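S2.1 Query sequence (Type III pantothenate kinase)
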Amino acid sequence: MLLAADIGNAHTVLGLLQPAAEGPGHDVLAHWRVGTDERRTADEWAVLLRGLLGRQSSEIEGLAVCSTVPSVLHEWRDMLGSHFDDVPRVVVEPGVRTGIPVLMDNPREVGSDRIINALAVATLHSGPAVVVDFGGTATTFDVVSAQGQYVGGAIAPGIEISLEALGRRGAQLRKVELARPRSVIAKNTVEALQSGMVFGAAAQVEGLVHRMVAELGVHADDMTVVATGHLAPLVLEECSVFTVHDPWLTLRGLGLVYDRNR
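Output structure tokens follow.
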């Protein structure tokens, strides 16, 4: 089995993968989401991993890792060298083969998770496509051409961080549960915040995707729009643009990168 780790600013998503029974890529057998704590040491990460994996830790045959947090990636490198030194691994960074051309002014500045998402959607869902990844810190939009090229995208504040900012800066506002309110036109402050977060995010996604499709010059019916990320279910039913919900797109993309570099 392959252990894939997507280390984000707020959360780290872990998954156990095996080759798919049908078609390309991998199936996700098990998954976990834990907080990304920059104070956590390499030994603490090792204890956490072995605790989650249990007896399956001895069945790990490969490791694939991507990270948007350099300090955490440093601890992961130490952890892999000390506790999983006999397991083949791929850390996705500039120079690692992904097989997808990156048509950016500076390809090295694009987050590895975004390249992995683009690779996964091009391989598993075909292009042209837009991947919308709903993370807590940021909502990212990544565009893949019909030729399987990463052509660019957009970054917007994530739903969680937007709600947190309102709670901190608004004198009469407070933290509320991220949930769908009864209606768009709210009758109380809690639901007003929820309406702004949920329906506001949905409208933002629809607006940006429509603009991206128009800029690519393709017909909307020919575009694959994929939702991923742990907050995707919050707005999935409020958006008319999505054609696919793939919650483990990044993990499956890590599996593809591992296969190309092992």
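The mean pLDDT is 92. The CA atoms of residues 222 and 242 lie 12 Å apart.
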